[in-house]
Amino acid sequence: MAKYQRILLKLSGEVMAGTGSFGIAPERIAALSAEVAEVARTGVQIGLVVGGGNFFRGVAAAAQNMDRVAADHMGMLATVINGLALQDALEKQGVPTRVMTAIEMHEVAEPYIRRRAIRHLEKGRIVIFAAGTSNPYFSTDTAATLRALEIRAEIVAKATRVDGVYDKDPLQNSDAVRFSEIGYSDVLSRNLKVLDASAVAMCRDNRLPIVVFNLNVHGNIMRMAMGESIGTLIH
Fold first, then answer.
1. Which CATH superfamily is domain 6-234 in?
2. Domain locations in the chain as residue ranges
3. Is 58 a residue whose pLDDT tops 70?
4. pTM for the complete prediction?
5. Cβ–Cβ < 8 Å for 34, 73
6. Alpha-carbon distance 62 to 66, whole Å?
7. d(CA 11, CA 34)
């Protein structure tokens, strides 16, 4: 039986690119959607936030001299593209899915309305929250935390390339030590960059736990939803 009734799953845009560095890998999205759909069929209500790095990093060099606000808006639009791709893949798994965007584009997706989002979740639909918060200077980590609080999710689950929070970058330091649990304040004081500081502070102030786990291990989304001890719990 699932430990959580409602979760907010945060995915990086790079996940969508699979082994590539840019764009969308259909086979990766299909595999990811199959895992998410399996969890949804257990009755867990799932909100999704996906980044836009798989598109935006491809134009990052061109954006270096751009106005920050314009560049952030480009990143938000990239998350809408990813959201639509995920919606298509999830519905092919037989799971009804809605994309709700913070930037209105009625022909493409529903505008984000909190009560409507909660209603979708209650009806068993996966809800993908796209376009961040619609505000520049805020990351998709912060958008995920905000949406999790708004829909009253029980946990924010951040799926990454590593299996938790380490005292230093494990991809560059072979002696990095992983935490099984860590406090919000320790993450902030140690400047552990697994999530944006503003997202961690928001979770701390509202007592919303965060779990950080490796998405590249098949079945980890289900293990997380069942409450198994994987990755790192920030609380």
1. Acetylglutamate kinase-like (3.40.1160.10)
2. 6-234
3. no
4. 0.94
5. no
6. 8
7. 15
